[in-house]
């Protein structure tokens, strides 16, 4: 009995300690991120790694998601004679929810995992330590630019996702199902607003980029410096980012559209 | 060389992202502040606008001719004053035309439909529709139906 | 070289990991211009000692002074300023895997100084020449042998012209030729560049060959100290066990365990 209590107590304390460590790291990341103002090249390299290289997977996923939304929306709405509104359905789903959320999930799998593995391996091979001994702060030189890159890349990727998704919906609705193109766009335009719809989508994606970058870097930075430790950290990073994004999405939606 | 490629890649990525945002703002939400379509404004007064929203389409014989610009309550008559922006090119709407609020489909959006009149004079900027027809409110319709049944 | 002037002074050093005391009252002096060796069996905390000197770890007691500054009490900027004057060669080499040999050596210089490219290039090539790898400058770390990687790491460690260079197990896992090269390099760089060196190692012969002064650590305490000649002449049982590579002695061969017969007959557990 006392053994179980002790285990529970230890787990609680460990969890709190990890959370505290993550928050402290976040503070240092935010302060360190100013380095990209002095040396923009560091940011450019990382935006390329997490942003440009994620474009293809984002665009292809978005096209398919948009096409599916177009099909499903059409089949549901046509029963009510409101099939002209399929554009509204596609655009609102993408801009408000699917764009930011699916982008963040794909980002966690494509870019977040590689961030975790990279940092974890640099730690395991003493590269971070040796940097410290060269009087170069690895948190500022290595971690902070990656964090800033995630903050920049995720909102842009989410915008690309939503735009490409709408095009996918258009292709299916107008090209395949024969809905009038003018009705598709005008219904969409009368239902979607810059504020709150698009602005809230952008705010969400910024928040998701923040969380995805933070978790990925924290997991890598605290990974046990072994092959097993790094692989576990990578998996856990993706899982935790996904859960955090979905939970945060609910919170933000509740706050934004109440 | 590879540095150049990285920079080009990032440049392309950022440009694409911003372009996507612009597409979302202009094409998806039809941001009017940035893309004010030239044209002219006319007003119409309705007893009840039902579920009409700003930016709802205005059409004539099923053809899109403009948008609802704003909806306000007239403080004296307690009627709804709807401002319509008619796009350039549709400047020969007869002055005695009727503006009516219709619903597209059973559950669709509400829009303003213009039934043309016969006069030679046409509507110009700032003019008011003399004839209007309010939105059909389902509850009221059912209510009338019920009272007639009882008679 | 005066030989007596102390660059780093460690007094009554205490450090624990978990419940185990890695150091329990250790005194050391690292003198300017000398190669100081710290020897001891694996797990005796030699690497920890280097991290304490470099300020990556804080001791639980005692004092660690480098160049007259109390390392554990330094603020972050002060510590970073001190570290620019230290070089450290990690056991693995710890080269940046995404950078070429040239860029690895250029890294600390680029980070700390805004040098025009031709000057930087000259500096890096000089450092690489010092370790005999000027020709390998465009290779990536993955293309290097273990010995070469360590030499590149050495060139990087001396890139900022430090006053103190620390070597963590420089000989481990090297073939005899590479070992010879490394011994030669450590000695030569120390004397020509006027450095002070700390070598942490458990390779007895190689270490005794280059050291001016040797400390032997075991079980968190200083076992012996002196010049290589003094140690060779020592008749302490523990020193003899270490120097002569005897399996058993004051440092036990067996990890603490219950009696073998007892455990085999018991038949439980993993």
UniProtKB/TrEMBL annotation, chain A:
Keywords: Cell inner membrane, Cell membrane, Membrane, Transmembrane, Transmembrane helix, Transport. Its main location: membrane. This is Intermembrane phospholipid transport system permease protein MlaE. InterPro entries: ABC_MlaE_roteobac (IPR003453), MlaE_Permease (IPR053408), Permease_MalE (IPR030802). Pfam families: MlaE (PF02405). The complex is composed of two ATP-binding proteins (MlaF), two transmembrane proteins (MlaE), two cytoplasmic solute-binding proteins (MlaB) and six periplasmic solute-binding proteins (MlaD). The keyword RNA-binding does not apply. It is found in: Cell inner membrane. Belongs to the MlaE permease family. The chain crosses the membrane at residues 48-71, 147-178, 198-217, 238-257. It is a multi-pass membrane protein. Part of the ABC transporter complex MlaFEDB, which is involved in a phospholipid transport pathway that maintains lipid asymmetry in the outer membrane by retrograde trafficking of phospholipids from the outer membrane to the inner membrane. Probably responsible for the translocation of the substrate across the membrane.
Automatic annotation (TrEMBL), chain B:
Residues 38-117 form the Mce/MlaD domain. It comes from the Bacteria. InterPro entries: ABC_MlaD, Mce/MlaD, MlaD_Phospholipid_Transporter. This is Outer membrane lipid asymmetry maintenance protein MlaD. It comes from Halorhodospira neutriphila. The gene is mlaD.
TrEMBL record, chain C:
The keyword Metal-binding does not apply. Keywords: ATP-binding, Nucleotide-binding, Transport. SMART domains: AAA. GO terms for molecular function: ATP binding. Residues 8-244 form the ABC transporter domain. It holds the Pfam family ABC_tran. This is Phospholipid ABC transporter ATP-binding protein MlaF.
């Amino acid at each position: 009995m006392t053994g179980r209590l002790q285990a529970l107590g230890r787990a609680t304390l460990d969890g709190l300690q990890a959370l505290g460590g993550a928050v402290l790291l976040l503070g240092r990341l935010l302060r360190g991120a100013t380095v990209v103002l002095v040396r923009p090249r560091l940011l450019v390299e990382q935006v390329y790694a997490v942003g440009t290289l994620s474009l293809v997977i984002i665009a292809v996923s978005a096209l398919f998601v948009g096409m599916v939304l177009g099909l499903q929306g059409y089949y549901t709405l046509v029963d009510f004679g409101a099939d002209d509104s399929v554009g509204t359905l596609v655009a609102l789903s993408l801009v408000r929810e699917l764009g930011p959320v699916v982008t963040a999930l794909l980002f966690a799998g494509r870019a977040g995992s590689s961030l975790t593995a990279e940092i974890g391996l640099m730690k395991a091979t003493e590269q971070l330590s040796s940097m410290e001994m060269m009087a170069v702060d690895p948190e500022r030189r290595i971690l902070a630019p990656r964090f800033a890159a995630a903050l920049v890349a995720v909102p842009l990727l989410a915008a690309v996702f939503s735009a490409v998704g709408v095009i996918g919906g258009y292709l299916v609705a107008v090209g395949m199902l024969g809905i009038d193109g003018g009705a598709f766009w005008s219904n969409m335009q009368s239902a979607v607003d810059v504020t709150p719809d698009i602005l809230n989508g952008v705010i969400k994606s910024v928040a998701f980029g923040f969380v995805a970058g933070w978790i990925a870097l924290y997991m890598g930075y605290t990974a046990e410096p072994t092959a097993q430790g790094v692989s576990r950290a990578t998996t856990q990073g993706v899982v935790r980012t996904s859960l955090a994004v979905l939970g945060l999405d609910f919170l933000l939606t509740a706050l934004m559209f109440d | 060389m590879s540095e150049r490629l990285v920079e080009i890649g990032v440049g392309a990525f950022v440009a694409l992202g911003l372009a996507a945002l612009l597409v979302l703002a202009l094409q998806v939400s039809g941001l009017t502040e940035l893309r004010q379509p030239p044209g002219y404004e006319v007003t119409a007064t309705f007893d009840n606008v039902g579920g009409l929203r700003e930016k709802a389409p205005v059409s004539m014989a099923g053809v899109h001719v403009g948008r609802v610009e704003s909806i306000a309550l007239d403080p004296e008559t307690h009627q709804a004053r709807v401002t319509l922006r008619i796009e350039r090119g549709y400047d020969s709407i007869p002055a005695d035309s009727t503006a009516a609020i219709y619903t597209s489909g059973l559950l669709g959006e509400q829009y303003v439909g213009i039934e043309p009149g016969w006069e030679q004079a046409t509507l110009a900027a700032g003019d008011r529709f003399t004839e209007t027809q309010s939105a059909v409110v389902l509850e009221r319709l059912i209510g009338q139906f019920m009272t007639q049944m009882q008679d | 070289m005066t030989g007596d002037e102390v660059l780093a002074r460690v007094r009554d050093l205490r450090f624990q990991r978990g419940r185990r005391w890695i150091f329990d009252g250790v005194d050391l002096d690292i003198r300017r211009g000398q190669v100081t060796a710290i020897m001891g069996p694996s797990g005796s905390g030699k690497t920890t000692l280097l991290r304490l000197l470099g300020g990556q770890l804080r001791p639980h007691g005692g004092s660690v002074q480098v160049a007259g500054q109390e390392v554990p009490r330094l603020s972050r900027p002060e510590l970073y300023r001190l570290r620019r004057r230290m070089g450290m060669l990690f056991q693995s080499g710890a080269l940046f895997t995404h950078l070429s040999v040239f860029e690895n050596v250029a890294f600390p210089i680029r980070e700390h100084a805004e040098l025009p490219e031709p000057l930087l290039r000259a500096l890096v090539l000089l450092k690489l020449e010092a370790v005999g790898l000027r020709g390998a400058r465009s290779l990536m770390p993955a293309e290097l042998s273990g010995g070469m990687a360590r030499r590149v790491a050495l060139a990087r460690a001396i890139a900022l012209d430090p006053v103190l260079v620390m070597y963590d197990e420089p000989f481990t896992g090297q073939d005899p030729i590479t070992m010879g090269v490394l011994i030669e390099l450590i000695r030569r760089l120390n004397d020509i560049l006027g450095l002070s060196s700390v070598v942490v190692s458990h390779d007895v012969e190689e270490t005794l060959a280059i050291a001016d002064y040797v400390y032997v650590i075991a079980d968190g305490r200083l076992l012996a100290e002196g010049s290589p000649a003094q140690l060779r002449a020592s008749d302490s049982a523990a020193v003899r066990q270490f120097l002569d590579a005897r399996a058993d002695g004051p440092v036990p061969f067996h990890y603490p365990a219950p009696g073998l017969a007892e455990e085999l007959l018991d038949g439980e557990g993993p």
